[in-house]
Amino acid sequence: MPKMEKNRHAWWKEAVIYQVYPKSFYDSNNDGIGDIQGIIAKLPYLQELGITMIWVSPFYQSPMADNGYDIADYYAVNPDFGDMQDVENLIACAKEHGIQVMIDLVINHTSDEHPWFTQALAQPQSKYRDYYIFKPAINDAPPNNWRSIFGGSAWEKVAGEACYYLHTFHRKQPDLNWENPALREEIYAMITWWLEKGIAGFRVDAITFIKKDQDYGSLPADGIDGLVSIKWKSRNRPGIEVFLNELKERTFQRFGCVTVGEAPGVPLADYGQFIGPQGYFDMIFDFHAADIDVENGSEWFRRRDWTVKEFKQALFASQQAFIASGWGTTFIENHDQPRALSKLIRDPVFQNETGAKALAAMYFFMHGTPFIYQGQELGMKNFNRTRIEQFDDISSIDNYHRALTEGFTSAQALEFINQRSRDNSRTPFPWAKTINGGFNSGAQPWLEFTHRDFEINAEEQRHRSDSVFHFYQRLIQLRNLEYPEVLIYGNFSPLETHSDDIVAYARHTDNQRLISITNMSNTPLSYVIPVGEVLLNNYDSIDSNLKPYQTIIIKECVTNEQV
Ligand code: NOJ
């Protein structure tokens, strides 16, 4: 059924999407690794929270160099997670709980253990050679000076040959050659296969990297390693529109599925190409606000002393770009980000339930489909690791060494990765104050917990009405059940505030106006609270001043001039 995709109303605009990182969600067979059966077991919890769709990070066959974003077989499930029958059961059981399933689509690269790649190496004359990007060595050195996203040269030498293959990410993630039509056909067949299984859609990984500048030229170095970030030559480059249009037409469009592109590097002014009436995707993720604490959103040692004013500007600029072009996403966490509570609440005193609720009400009602990352609904925080050996994530290990190379001490390097490590959000989910936090029944988990006291846990929060969990539940009820016309489809207007530290906006229709006001600082700030019904408040009362990190959602008494 072709989708009425750019109609004002659409089912995927009404979704609230919860991201599951399967390795860390729930370990049903007690082997230390979360699994698909574990997700099925926790569907009642997700239904209770009120979400309507899950996005499951990769569960495909994989050597797990990048925790599943390195796929060795698109048609098979990693045995650590279960099997294809489990996935089919997940889709069916989720449906019974009113939940749809979105999966991750990783098509910029595969694992180096994918048979296409092993064939490409074993038989250079085979058709698989051209599924990847091989280039001759130049004077025994890599073809150019591009630095991979996970550090070091983006080129890996092929053993026994005077050539290299390209990997935008880890060396175990060789890039696919999208210039090759035969490769593209394989990808479209695979996507069709998954859509026929009944998944609701895809979160499309690293999709702005599929087109490389065909000159494969070097650029001036941007680090003391003599390399330059690959993104300048391989991210959102001219010509990508041909691939993205074809991808949409041959797959997504035929099924009316939902698509969310991970699209870093797209200028706001170009959002229309991605999410406009003829856009490649239904929505994209925008990282300007999420990456406010690091320069260019990349190397973690390039930290920024950001202000709330800048954060707000980034947030609202992205909102305006979404609105001008189509539909957006709103999120504060994912599996690549540290915990928002630790990143965005600068005063540690308020890295508590008050702060978690402030962030929740601040982002949730913006224009777009909201995403919640597992554990965010409990107000989880970052850990504080003391040794590099405690980290699993390849990007954390790379960033640690890059920081040392750039002249930082090991203590400084460790601090950078504690603040930014992707492991922060990948720790096992704390279900209860019991053995291993109820993640499993006692086996050593694949990654250390955030805190071993399990003070923050789902069981406790489900039974306490003023918990962060219940706050999120209420946000979802307000958006989806009580005020959908205004909170999903209504206009969005940033509100002027005397203080730069207040984030305030209105969602409004002809006859309703809801206001979200959040003090993003640790000091009381004056704000004239509009007269109306208070729908949510993370404090017990409202004074003449907004209290530190106070957030309020108000349904304003409207006059005709206001709307
Ligand atoms: C983006 C994913 O979110 C991240 O986890 C992964 O490492 C890279 N893409 C490479 O697939």
Structure description:
It is built from 16 helices and 22 strands. With 563 residues, the chain is of the alpha/beta class. Helix 12 (394-405) packs antiparallel against helix 13. Mean pLDDT is 96; it is low at 1-6. 1-deoxynojirimycin is lined by residues 66, 69, 106, 169, 205-206, 262, 335-336.
Describe the structure in brief.
This protein has 16 helices and 22 strands. The protein is an alpha/beta fold and 563 residues long.
Can you give keywords for this protein?
alpha/beta, 5-stranded antiparallel beta sheet, TIM Barrel, 563 residues, Immunoglobulin-like, globular, 2 domains, single chain, binds 1-deoxynojirimycin, disordered N terminus
Fold topology:
Elements (H helix, E strand, L loop, with lengths): L16 E4 L15 H6 L1 H7 L3 E4 L3 E2 L11 E5 L6 H13 L3 E6 L9 H8 L11 E3 L9 E2 L7 E3 L5 E4 L14 H16 L4 E4 L23 E2 L1 H4 L5 H16 L2 E5 L8 H5 L7 E3 L22 H18 L3 E2 L9 H5 L8 H12 L4 E5 L20 H12 L4 H11 L37 H5 L5 H15 L1 H4 L3 E4 L7 E7 L4 E7 L5 E2 L5 E6 L7 E2 L4 E6 L7
Parallel strand pairs: 1-2, 1-15, 2-5, 5-10, 7-11, 10-12, 12-13, 14-15
Antiparallel strand pairs: 3-4, 6-9, 8-9, 16-17, 17-18, 18-22, 19-21, 20-22
Helix pairs in contact: 5-7, 11-15, 12-13
The chain binds 1-deoxynojirimycin (NOJ).
1-deoxynojirimycin binds next to loops.
Family: Belongs to the glycosyl hydrolase 13 family.
Enzyme class: hydrolase
EC number: 3.2.1.1
Mean pLDDT: 96
CATH topology of the largest domain: TIM Barrel
Strand content: 15-25%
In quaternary terms, these chains amount to: single chain
